[in-house]
Amino acid sequence: MEVKGYPNYTVDDKGNIHNKHNRKMTSFKVNGYHIVCLYKDNTKQNKKVHKIVAEAFLNSVPTDIIDHKNRNKDDNRLKNLRVVSCVENRHNINQLSNNESGYTGIYIKNEKYLSTITINYKEYKKIIPFSEDAIQRALHFRLTKKIENGILV
Predict the structure, then answer these.
(1) Residue 70: which residues within 8 A CB-CB, separation 6 or more?
(2) Which domain holds residue 103?
(3) Within a 10 A sphere around the Cβ of 38, how many other Cβ atoms?
(4) How confident is the model at residue 25 (pLDDT cuts 50, 70, 90)?
(5) What is the pLDDT of residue 93?
(6) Cβ distance 86 to 93 under 8 Å?
(7) What is the DSSP annotation of the chain?
(8) Tell me, what's the pLDDT at 122?
(9) pLDDT, mean of residues 145-150
(10) Do 111 and 143 fall into the same domain?
């Protein structure tokens, strides 16, 4: 399929960009995202590969947020991409490297678990004492808040 706005380039559903000579474009990375240099009217434009794929196949516009479902920025296949809202995109983030619980939104604080989730700019928190089922209770709290706020149905 033709890259929108760049008639000398094509994109496929596997995230490959080719020039008019059918040569695969080489990408480079910026902040983990694959970037290709496209030319039109002797002007160079750097474009993110996942945005090119989404514009071609998902009819997205440049201002749309495109999410990698599996969180892997190297995986620009169409089946791994989706158009999301800012709130939806925040729910698909990796846990912080200093997180000792091993779960996103669940932290150890003052020898207790703190389960947090932010939905539509509102933060929900619950402190859970250490116990055998503390992690399960913290996960249940986060899941309940998502359901209550229509994130999951």
Answers:
(1) 80
(2) 99-148
(3) 19
(4) very high
(5) 64
(6) no
(7) -EETTEEEEEE-TTS-EEETT-PBPP-EEETTEEEEEEEETTEEEEEEHHHHHHHHHS---TTSEEEETTS-TT---GGGEEEE-HHHHHTT-PPPTT-SSSSTTEEEETTEEEEEEEETTEEEEEEEE--TTHHHHHHHHHHHHHHHTTS--
(8) 84
(9) 85
(10) yes
How many whole angstroms separate alpha carbon 116 and alpha carbon 97? 16
pLDDT per residue as tens digits for the range 27-85: 999 989 999 999 999 999 999 999 999 999 999 998 899 999 888 899 999 999 999 88
Return the number of other C-beta atoms located less than 10 Å from residue 60's C-beta.
Answer: 20
pTM comes to 0.64
Q: Are residues 14 and 82 in the same domain?
A: yes
Structure tokens given for 32: 């983990």
Q: Is 44 in the same domain as 104?
A: no
Compute the half-sphere exposure of residue 131: CA atoms within 13 Å on the CB side of its CA: 8
Q: Cα–Cα distance between 35 and 105 in angstroms, integer?
A: 31
Cα 24 to its chain centre, rounded Å, is 25
Within a domain: 93: no
